[in-house]
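Long-time lurker, finally posting.

We've been working with Ribose 1,5-bisphosphate phosphokinase PhnN (Paramixta manurensis) and I want a structural starting point before designing mutants. I don't trust myself to interpret raw outputs, so I'm hoping someone here can both generate the structure tokens and explain anything notable. Sequence follows.
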Amino acid sequence: MARLIWLMGASGAGKDSLLNALREQPPEGMLVAHRYITRPADAGGENHIALTESEFQRRRAYGLFALDWQAHQTAYAVGIEVDIWLARGWNVMVNGSRQHLPQAQQRYASRLFPLCLQVSPAILEARLRQRGRESEQQIARRLRRAQETTLPDCPQLNNDGALNDTLNALRHLLGATP
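Top reply, 14 upvotes:
Generated this for you. Predicted structure of Ribose 1,5-bisphosphate phosphokinase PhnN:
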């Protein structure tokens, strides 16, 4: 059975880096889905499909999203193409939302594989400072939120070290080969 792998983790944990690496060298039978987001394509961070608010709402009304949610004054969605890929037997990984995991669980039930990308607080703080997108106040908020948000029964994938080590651990966890 094909699975929707719902990758979650704090901002700065390395989700984008991991997803970009998987796009280059995915395990056999896996696709990485883009999210549709109401922010400019050149805003930095995630490789996404940028939509205006009106275009996002139009696509939502047409039923073109499998899942959608709001966070940080921004709209996010996963397209219905993931359902086609799953039906064809492909595993699909997506940058998921911790707060909207229940929505994904409701839609995908046993086909959903939640995965928590973890980093130690010191490494998370260093990464947030290095990327230079947040103020000190925003960094402090993100660090607090990362420590407050824990998900029970979510397999953990540690990303403290080299990205290649994380990729190898992911392949092992999923029982996949390159």
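Before you design anything, note these points.
The helical segments are 15-24, 53-61, 81-87, 101-108, 121-131, 136-148, 163-174.
The first strand starts at residue 4 and ends at 9.
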